[in-house]
Amino acid sequence: MKEDLLHFIWKYKKYPVNGLVSTSNEAIHVVSTGMHNHLSGPDFFNAQVELNGQLWAGNVEIHVKSSDWYAHNHQEDDNYNNVILHVVWEDDVAVFRKDGSEIPTLSLKEYIPLKVLQTYQNLFDSRNYRFINCENEFNEIDEFLKNNWLERLFVERLEQKSIYINQLLKETNNDWEQVLFLMLLKTFGSKINRDSFVEIGKSIDFSMIRKLHKKPLQLESLFLGQANLLESTIEGDVYFNDLKKEYQFLKHKFNLSPISKSPEFFRLRPLNFPTIRLAQLSTIYSENNNLFHLLIEHEELDFLKSLKLGTSEYWENHFTFGKVAKKSKKRLSTSFINLVLINTIIPLKFAYNRYKGGLENDVFLRMMSKIKREENSIIVNFGKLGITMDNAKDSQAYLQLYNNYCVNDKCLDCAVGASLMNIKV
User: Fold this and answer.
1) CB 414, CB 425: distance < 8 Å
2) Hey, which end of the chain has fewer CB within 10 Å, N or C?
């Protein structure tokens, strides 16, 4: 027995409406189960329960065993003084509030239909699935319910990303331009280098980026120097030595300190090398000033593709310093631009919209619907279940579903899992 199942049973009244009796033989009638609390404190706030005909209003706490009350030291916590009912699976000890008064206890063990327990156990039986708990039943779920849930998940994903954006806003005194810069660095760093790229961004006073507009060599030297990629000595590489010279000047003038550990090259495709990604980003900022406001003013996503998204000439036949490679333009690919839109531009637009007091979601649903879906192992595995994803709105929703619900076994908080338990979320 798990506590989340008891939460589910209490919240959706999967027990007999009539005939409930406390362990002290008091007649119980649940008027309102209360508001489910996912944070610290009692599990359900503002419940209403009749005990022997007397209406009580307060909080409800749920445990597998009554003795968990003492295991969690609730008897010492003032937040639990207003608990009016202790709901448990097994009553193994009487429970008292801090003031010494006994709390009525409802033991659910004798009231729950066997079908509910069997359905729950089958859902979490690892012998029944390889990828997600409900993979054998997923396609049986009502399409209307499923589509509504996926739309909620998409918005939930944007709201989750907004938490990080709001954190950056606090760190930058609400400088949206600087937040965009840091978010772009995170995306350009990809999974392997995103943390070190953000560290690079935070090591630079953003006013320097503004000052170096239209100065591509200096801006590129700043990015690569702060990444600790200009510390070596390469004889005969004129461009490297020019960058190093420029960086030494900037480092002395602005008292700069590069990050301690250089970004990784290992296990990366050459086009994702930190040298190339930082060179591409420096080109964007050397050619465009007030980039955030330009992006906010243009609703059409194709605007990003109209920017100069290449590199300086040196990188056309280099991936790293000192090694000549076959000549090729290092422009951002369409798939990478889509990642920038998905992970940076649209979340920023969403967060800015919320910052300004807007609550509409349709515009962001439309934006993401125009973008091709991502391709990764999670999306591939959902595809093996016969699930079709037409665009990035769909893939983002399924990524949110998998990462926040499936892998954490939060099936009872999911509309799909709750539907399999024959209840609506």
Assistant:
1) yes
2) N
Q: What is the pLDDT of residues 235-263, one digit of tens each?
A: 999 999 999 999 999 999 999 999 999 99
How far is residue 125's CA from residue 121's CA, in Å, rounded to a whole number? 6
- Percent pLDDT > 70 in the chain is 98
CB 55 within 8 A of CB 30: no
Average pLDDT over residues 352-372: 93
- Helix, strand, coil percent content, the chain, rounded in steps of 5: 50, 10, 35
Q: For the chain, how many helices (H) and strands (E)?
A: 18, 9
Rounded-to-integer distance, Cα 334 and Cα 421, Å: 42
The per-residue b/e assignment along 353-386, b for 16 or more CB within 10 angstroms, e otherwise, is: beeeeeeeeeebeebbeebebbeeebbebbeeee
CA dist 282 and 353 (Å) reads 27
pLDDT at residue 308 in the model = 60
Q: Which of 356, 351, 372 is nearest to 301 (CA)?
A: 372
Nearest to 117 by CA among 3, 5, 20, 4: 5
Write out the H or E segment, with its range, that includes residue 54. Answer: strand 54-65
- Measured N-to-C along each axis, helices 143-171 and 176-188 cross at an angle, to the nearest 10 degrees, of 120
Q: Are the C-beta atoms of 103 and 83 separated by less than 8 Å?
A: yes
Distances (CA, A) of 3 to 66, 270, 295: 12, 49, 46
Buried b / exposed e over 15-39, threshold 16 CB at 10 Å, is beeeebebeeebebebeebbeebee
Q: What tokens does 363 get? A: 């515009």
CB atoms closer than 10 angstroms to residue 190: 17
Distance CA 11, CA 342 (A): 35
Q: Which residues of 300-333 are buried (b: 16+ CB within 10 A; e: fewer)?
A: ebeebeebebbbbebbeebbbbeeeeeeeebebe
Sign, CA dihedral 217-218-223-227, equals positive
